[in-house]
Amino acid sequence: MKNKSIIDSWNKTDPDSAAQEHMLENIISRSGEKRMIMHWKPLTAVAAACVILLAGVFVFNRIDTPDQLPDSVSSGKNSNLANQNPESEAGIADLSDEIKGLPVKNFKLSEIELNIAMDRIAFSNFLNFFEYGTSSFVIVKVADTQPVPATGDDMSEKQTSAVKILETVWGDDVPKAIDVTQYLYGGCTGDEATNLLREGGVYLLPLENYKGEYYLNGDLDVLFEIDDQGRIWSHSDYPDFNRYDGEDYQAVTKEIMRISQDDALILATSSFGMAMRGWQLLEVTITSDPEEEKDEYGYIEVVYAARVESTLSGDDPGTKILLHSNTNEDVPLSSGKRYLLFVDNYDGKHYMNPNMLASVEADGTIKNLGGEGSTFAEYNSYTVEEVSKLAHEVTEFLKTFQQ
């Protein structure tokens, strides 16, 4: 994901600059800065170029369907209430507060015929929403929807929906009326954009607030829709979601509240907890000055020799290891000093990251050496033993959480 070019195809499309920035910020803040790899396997010669954004924001190039995108519709804005047009605002004011929507067809998003197959991060359980940027769960009623055609600067077709907030279930406060932006999947992943909100519909939405604009998380995998009887439908194949299909919508809101009040879940979805998913936490003493060496591709890496004092997560790597870092990363390690750090065990090597390390002081407490929001930022003055207990809590939580 470090490369600007994600995929080339017969119909090459790059994400617009705002989408690229959004994608990179999500990857950095939500993945513990671990490198993310996605594999694309075109099944047809005319596969559209797709960029999948973590945290549920996806950018796709859609095969145009004239009846869905009339030429007369002008490009709209991804906006909050301040940018809404007067007609949408008036329509919102006329909506009732009743949490009942439209009759719902119980389709599954996965039933859409795929044009390409892909390995990607999917939203398969409620934990994923807390992991990947959800700022609020809200129940909304849709007043109006508007297609937003692609432009020269923004190659992604979208839909904006003017919605009234009926209830905030969890998370940050949301204005009473907002515009919600969705990216269209039709053409790239299916024949029609079934993920889109419907005018008059009522939904339970996981929202991400990005620079004052609201997006949906995970609507390729789940879209909670409340029907005209107050029953909820997930449109998902994942058991953690569809076990509530046909039940009163409050069955889902109660589950969201239950897991959001779990201290272990909050820890598991923090930067520290996210790093525990794919990185190994070690306490080490640096035993050499840095040396430079070339990797198999000819890139220069900085290498430190280290002695492992304790293994706080993962398999024991042995007493002596080599720690690798890219030369463009400022890693403040000194020979003879002790550190807590996360390592990415990749291709038989132990890679470290400057935002995922802390020094161990003489009194046994740690000092964060990364920036604001980095892995150890919340744990200054914790002892190594206390951090070890946190690591154990995350490990046990992930074992027991329903997958």
From TrEMBL:
The keyword Transmembrane helix applies. This is Uncharacterized protein. It comes from the Bacteria. The chain crosses the membrane at residues 40-60. It comes from Anaerocolumna xylanovorans DSM 12503. Keywords: Membrane, Transmembrane, Transmembrane helix.
